[in-house]
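If it is no trouble, might I ask you for a protein's amino acid sequence along with its backbone structure tokens?
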Amino acid sequence: MKIETYRDFLKIDNFENIKKVFFDTLIETNHDPKFFVDWVKVKANVEKYKVELSILNSLIRHREFDKALRDILVRYPEVLPCLPLLIAVREQHLKLIDDFSSSRVRIEDYNFAPRKLTETEISKIIKFVDQTGLKHFFLNLSAASLQDYLTGIEVGLDTNARKNRSGKVMEFLIENLIRKFWNQLKIRDFIKQKEFNVLERVGISVPKELKHRKADFILIKEPAKVINIEANFYNVTGSKPQEIVDSYINRQEELKKAGFYLDYRWLCLEKWPKSAKQSF
């Protein structure tokens, strides 16, 4: 541990006091109310297929479902991308095992890009709709509006983006701290979310194994010193925090060989106002 860092910024040179400050500044979450759903994105994703969903609405409770779906696929192939969306899948190209019970596994390719379909392709899509349960959904579960249903799906799919939103919060907070101590830290340049090869543009040699590794933050200090700062937030125990710790240890070893320095401690001990303190 570099005790000088804590002495300079927190006026603490005792390990027990450093540890106390660290735990006192930990909080349970870095989420704000906007963390959960990006409603603008949800609305845009649903509006994108407004016409196509209106066409597919005609299939709800239809007595001749297969025939009606075939007619739609012939006349309006632009509805194709909506079908995987209705089972919460964004990809338009899928590979699926046809039959697990078969002694020989066969992989089926499904392409939902809008285009004029052959009769074979139409039959294949109808089979997909049946086997995935979409047909059952249309006939037995769906209400009157697929737009409302897709809105719910988009809210669910948007949870996958929460990690990115959490990361953006951490970037914002750390960047503010760096700028606050810009002069005190003697920072010459500040780079965020870039591969290490960006250093070559300012005349700093980077070893081959690091060139395409991405850094959260890179500080170039005076006198010539490169510091890599990695930020993370987690509030659970288990394998994930350990993986993060291990990845930091590995990064530190790689940077040492290159003559760089990894810091993933000093910023977390800045004294935050109670309304804004974070740990990273």
Notes: The chain has two domains: 3-30+181-269, 39-160. Residues 3-30+181-269 form one domain.
